[in-house]
Amino acid sequence: MASIKTPHPFVPWFELIWYSHNIPRMNFILWLSIRERLSTLGRVHLYNPHVGTLCVLCCSSPETHAHLFFECAYSKVIWSHLKDMCGQPWNGRSWSRFIAWATQRWRGKSPSIIVKKICLAVAVYYIKRERNSKNFRNSHKTSIVVARSIIDTIRSRLLSTNLRD
Length: 165
Fold this sequence. Notes:
Layout lengths: L13 H4 L6 H11 L6 H7 L17 H7 L1 H14 L8 H11 L5 H27 L5 H17 L6
Helix pairs in contact: 2-7, 4-5, 5-7, 5-8, 7-8
């Protein structure tokens, strides 16, 4: 008898995405970004060469996952604001190297690890949301306002969660 569920290879970043205190909507966007499946202008350009590839947040480089989340000047300001709250220096690595690094180091269920995972998911979600807002609604917030929204969301999640050592 054939099994309905087919086995899939284990992915090393599984624990980075799926954990008990995650925010499903935001972690889904993080999952897509780790797999590089979000519709960045770089990906859209592959199917429609008439679409420009310039990042809508900084207007200086082609929009890829690596650029959007770690190399963009707009994103760098957000990550620098989150550094103090999460106790994590975000810059200095490429997107793929950071994910590989975090996958190896952010294992377990300690409160500090959970905070870092939540911080990553919420930041990626808000950066992508702001990018979509500017691209499709012509609405734009400063990176500092977005960073404050991210911090408020993280605080709300942590206050509604029972984290124990």
